[in-house]
Amino acid sequence: MTRFAYAHDDDHGHGHGHGDHDGDIPEWPHKPAPPEPRRLLPETPLLIRGLGLAALAAALGCAGLRTMRASWLLAPLAAVLGAGGFLAAWAAAIELTGGEKFDDHKFV
Q: Angle, nearest 10°, between helix axes 44-70 and 75-96?
């Protein structure tokens, strides 16, 4: 008997067949976190950081546009200012919508 044929004739060393699970569903390591209460406005620290980042995004966006209008030679600087404005707007959106959530594990 070849090694391949022997490997598929037995239980592969794990003691049960492939379809023999008895309908067991594995248990989760911990229960999911309860849902947080819905808020119209985020908590005060998140609101302050979000508004500050939104102001920074607006300032960087305006600076990028003014730089671009001043001279085409300043296009690389305008691109850097625009990218900074985009990232600041993204961070502001995260802060104003409640911040990042790390509730997938109870120790994080």
A: 160
